[in-house]
Amino acid sequence: MEPDAGGKKLASIIRRRRRRRRRRRRRRRRRRRYQFQFSRWPRRLMG
Question: Which residue range is the domain that position 44 belongs to?
Fold first, then answer.
């Protein structure tokens, strides 16, 4: 019963982490695109 319960707990934690990571990756990609756009403007103005 102990290994079964531990496996279920690990599976639930892994599933939650995977869902959170996917959402964070999407948000990071959007943020990175904005950062690149904002970083290009000051570089052109300063350059």
Answer: 1-47
**Count of domains in the chain?**
1
Taking the C-alpha atoms of residue 29 and residue 27, their distance in angstroms, rounded to an integer, is: 5
What is residue 8's predicted lDDT score, i.e. its pLDDT? 75
Q: Which H or E element spans position 14?
A: helix 2-46
How does pLDDT run across 1-47, given as a tens digit for each residue?
A: 565 667 777 777 777 776 666 666 666 656 666 555 666 666 666 65
* 41: exposed, middle or buried (Cβ count in 10 Å: 0-12, 13-18, 19+): exposed
CA 2 – CA 24 distance, rounded (Å) = 33
